């Protein structure tokens, strides 16, 4: 049930797309606290949304602007000499996107340092990064297959949505972050 509540919170708070970063950061924070059985999911989410709003929004806007530049050119420019650079750029962007929200939800740092740390953690713990990237891809694949073969399961997937992905990503992310510092993710 908490997965559904978290999904609704993330989706509703992301309706103005500019708040997507704050919603994801709050989602990671609330899911981590829920797994550790600390506090109430909704209260934790709203408190984290408020406290991380500015930094998370700036991080999201930076990633969105870079992504808005990189992805269209990656699709439109099919120059064979540029393909390796495009792949590297997309991998770097995905790595930063996957790790910035758990880092913002756990540590108080500047946006630039958080983005830099996201790349350091992402490439330093590549197996975890690949796992975290695979989770939403597998989820999208399941949604696609649901549409084709068993549409009745689509309703359940829509209810769980991003909340399920965040819950699945929290444990491996916390495991990695706990190993990086003595205080671990509980620092916040």
Automatic annotation (TrEMBL):
Keywords: Membrane, Transmembrane, Transmembrane helix. The chain crosses the membrane at residues 6-31, 58-77, 83-107, 128-147, 153-170. The keyword Transmembrane applies. This is YesL family protein. It comes from Bifidobacterium fermentum. The lineage of its organism: Bacteria, Bacillati, Actinomycetota, Actinomycetes, Bifidobacteriales.
């Amino acid at each position: 049930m908490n997965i559904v509540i978290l999904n609704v919170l993330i989706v509703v708070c992301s309706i103005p797309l500019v708040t997507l970063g704050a919603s994801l950061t709050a989602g990671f924070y609330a899911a981590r606290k829920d797994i550790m059985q600390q506090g109430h999911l909704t209260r934790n989410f709203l408190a984290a949304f408020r406290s991380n709003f500015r930094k998370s929004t700036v991080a999201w806007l930076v990633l969105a602007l870079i992504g808005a530049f990189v992805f269209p050119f990656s699709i439109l420019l099919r120059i064979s000499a540029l393909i390796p650079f495009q792949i590297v750029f997309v991998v770097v962007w995905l790595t930063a996107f996957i790790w910035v929200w758990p880092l913002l939800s756990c540590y108080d740092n500047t946006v630039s340092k958080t983005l830099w740390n996201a790349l350091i953690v992402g490439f330093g713990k590549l197996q975890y990064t690949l796992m975290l990237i695979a989770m939403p891809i597998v989820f999208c694949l399941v949604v696609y297959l649901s549409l084709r073969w068993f549409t009745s399961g689509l309703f359940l997937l829509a209810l769980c949505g991003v909340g399920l992905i965040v819950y699945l990503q929290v444990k491996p992310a916390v495991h990695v972050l706990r190993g990086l510092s003595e205080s671990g993710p509980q620092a916040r």
